[in-house]
Predict the structure.
Amino acid sequence: MERTAAFARVRDCLVVTLLGETTGRSWESLRSDLLGRLGASGVRGVVIDASAVAVVDDVDGRALADTVDMCRLLGARALVAGLSVEVVTALILLDAPLDRLEGEASVERAIERLLQGADDGQP
Amino acid sequence: MTNSGLQVRTTRQDTRGGSQGVDAAELIRRLEITPEDLRLVRSYGKIVVPQIAAYNTLFYQWMERQPEWSIFFSDAVRLTHVQQRQMQHWQDLFEVEQIDEAYVARRVRIGEIHARIGLSLMAYFAGIDHSMRIFKHELYDGSLSIDDYTHVSVAVSKLIHADATLVLDAYTRATSQKIADQASALLEMSTPVTALWDDILMLPVVGIIDSNRAQDIMSAVLRSVAETRARIFIMDISGVPVVDTAVANHIIKITRATRLMGCQSVLSGVSPVIAQTMVELGVDVGGILTKATLRDALAAAYEAVGIRLVTADGRAAGSRS
């Protein structure tokens, strides 16, 4: 099966880089992979790097939100990094469930924020 | 300006281009203009067209007494030109063979010229009315029977009303185009996203937010956020007169969009009335950081990006206590 994500451990964070187009199926395998690693490693945060994503549909929006929720259940805070203006606009127009989704401009900044602690950036 | 602004403008032009005024067939049908009417008008034309120079003299004797005279006819060359056009215009009407697209286009053109120079509709209708008096009374030689004269009169009226319809339509379209142009110009001026400080963006929103504008605001803000990588975006809505569910939803969407790009939105200028409506409307305000004043929002922004203001002698500045 084609690889749709790459994983990397950076300090106390797990960085998931989304590669190219995603489907409902690929999200499922990505998720089980991610959650498996998360349970084993005991990292504090997850960064979903979406800077290579150019096109999204409503499946992606929902899958993204679900993944973030699942990470939270396993005790890790998840941030989405590197969303482009076009992708954000599309997600908003698609009415994706974004309430709990948080983003950062870059992976670097996302890691910084995750390591700073949970109090930062919350209203 | 933003791409979406441009798109909005082109779409508007398209819709405008789609409704190119009144259709000749529709005009004939609605005013019930028959070939007999046109024949009657032409028969009356045989009486008045040879006297068109006399009409011109009489009309401009009257015109001289109108307030528009000094504004539009101070130039002799222009006056002659306008007189020529006007005589042609009436000759065209009294020698009409058929009402086709070309005839309609010529009439619409007159309306457009009048609209462009800013002649009031009152002046236009007064002119038409006076012209009719000249044609129907002063130039009439009494050669028709009373019956024929009545029929002619009705037929001429139909063509005059057709003219009036076309001119009014041209006026209306000129006016709505002006309004549309102004609206799009206003839209372009209405999203001045400014960098207040490193990492802090600000947008004062003045006026009503509709979905078009919300879209514009969102793309302008997102673009600025992507460009500057700001961490805080302050949206000041003290200039927004009404906040209803739709507006509140637009605001929430904008805050969510910036959050996805790693930029926290702070809403400022929330008036007591707006706070009340937002809660009463059941808008989920939990996720949005709101402040009553721009000053408070700025203080929150400084705090969030880790800036502490101190006075020259080292005391904390900006605190109200």
